Amino acid sequence: MPEGRLVIGTRRYSSWSLRGWLPVRLASLDVEEMVIPIARGATQAIREGTPSGTVPYLEHRGVRVWESLAIAEYCAEIMPSLWPSERPTRAWARAIAAEMHAGFATLRRTMPMNLGRTGAAPHPEAQADIARIDALWREALTASGGPFLFGAAFGNADAMYAPVVCRFVTYRPDLSPQARAYCEAVRAYPLMVAWYDMAAQEPPEWLLPHYENPA
After folding, report:
1. Which residue segment(s) compose the domain that 28 sits in?
2. pLDDT tens for residues 36-52?
3. What is the pTM of this model?
4. What is the pLDDT of residue 49?
5. Are residues 164 and 136 in the same domain?
6. What angle is formed at CA 77 by the lines to CA 75 and CA 81, rounded to 5 degrees?
7. How many CA atoms lie within 13 A of 9 on its CB side?
8. Total tally of structural domains belonging to the chain
9. Are residue 9 and residue 76 in the same domain, yes or no?
10. What is the rounded distance in angstroms from the CA atom of residue 178 to the CA atom of residue 175?
11. Buried b (16+ CB within 10 A) or exposed e, 139-150
12. What is the pLDDT of residue 215?
């Protein structure tokens, strides 16, 4: 019997759902997944099915958690290794995760996540965001030795940036060699492979024209 549920949106498009799903699976929480297809504008089923009217939303052992970063923190209380063990490095990881959570609005707006698109061009307005992300990654990877941001293990900071990797796979911006290698490592991570595979199995009626053919 599952100990709760995780409500997420369409895997093909929902970057925030991916950010919540990864820590839940990394922490091995026994929850069932409920996928609500997203629509243009507010989705009625999501408004009715979650406290904030957004995804992801986690219920686990009577605890209710919404917002991706809060879910990541909850999962780290169960599996502390999701953040680095040393306090200064842990603070660094939390800072760059929070920067992703609060920032890069231009990249998110102009380069929406779509796991089924290939060969799209990066939007010129997003270049400053791309450069900042590349710099953040290079600094962390240089200090940790990689292949993930804070060492050998995929953690919460990587979960926060995983949808950015998805965007970079789609839009192929110019990146430093370190950033490109990081994208390859994240894309090949087993949970990411599984997410892509599940996204590819979603029914065609879930496809949205404004994601498939953005203006």
Report:
1. 4-80+196-212
2. 999 876 688 898 889 99
3. 0.96
4. 83
5. yes
6. 80
7. 26
8. 2
9. yes
10. 8
11. ebbeebebbbbb
12. 62
